[in-house]
Amino acid sequence: MSKIIIGITGATGIQYGVRTLEILKACKVETHLIVSRAAEKVMGYETDFFKEKLYGLADKVHPVENVGASIASGSFKTDGMIITPCSIKTLSEIATGVTSTLLTRAADVVLKERRRLVLMVRETPLHAGHLKNMLSVTEMGGIIMPPVPSFYTQPATVDEIISHSVIRALDLFGLNCKMPRWGEEK
């Protein structure tokens, strides 16, 4: 069975993290969730979700301060990690190797073990420091994938836009989730 770590940070767009968990549950992928304190606050602004409902979507929830959790070790085998949404603070910690929480420690472990790390960075506009950190993570083997909508699918709802971005990110893990794809009949 596939195992993927999901990090949700305080950047706007917590719906991306929620949808990621829903899709992975449907694909029968074991999920290990870490939610930053800022993400818990943003959830109250952006959704009608409660923490318990979000946590109920994951197979295992790891407290963000538990740097001794299983996912903090390279011997715990996973297919990788997706952070969605990914704040600039989280990106910066990963880029510099400064791991102040389990979320950034798990990302660091994924990189050192040469596993897949996908960061759905949510910030705009970007300054040179942001771009340098993105380059640094990319040079370490991570993938920067901002959730940029595609309109060839002619989405009718915000959920369709979110789902398409999430499935494109999950494609990077070799998962085959159904969605409209370029060049395919609707």
How would you characterize this protein structure?
This protein is of the alpha/beta class and 186 residues long. 40% of the residues lie in helices and 16% in strands. It has seven helices and six strands, in the order E-H-E-H-H-E-E-H-H-E-H-E-H. It has helices spanning 14-26, 37-46, 51-56, 88-96, 102-112, 128-139, 158-171; strands at 3-8, 30-35, 60-61, 80-86, 116-121, 143-144. A six-stranded parallel β-sheet has the order 3-2-1-4-5-6, with helices on both faces. Strand 1 (3-8), helix 1 and strand 2 form a beta-alpha-beta unit. Helix 1 packs across helix 7 (158-171) and helix 4 crosses helix 6 (128-139). The longest helix is centred in the last third of the chain and has 14 residues, at 158-171. It is globular and about 45 Å long.
Query: Mind describing the biggest β-sheet?
Result: 6 strands, parallel
| Terminal-residue CA separation | 31 Å
Strand content: 15-25%
Computed structural class: alpha/beta
Based on CA inertia axes, which overall geometry fits? globular
What is the quaternary state of this protein? single chain
Q: Summarize the helix and strand pattern as letters.
A: EHEHHEEHHEHEH
Q: Which whole number gives the mean pLDDT?
A: 94
Main sheet: strand order: 3-2-1-4-5-6
Name the helicity range: 40-55%
**Number of E-state strands:** 6
Number of helices: 7
Contiguous runs where pLDDT drops below 50 for at least 5 residues: none
Rg for CA atoms: 16 Å
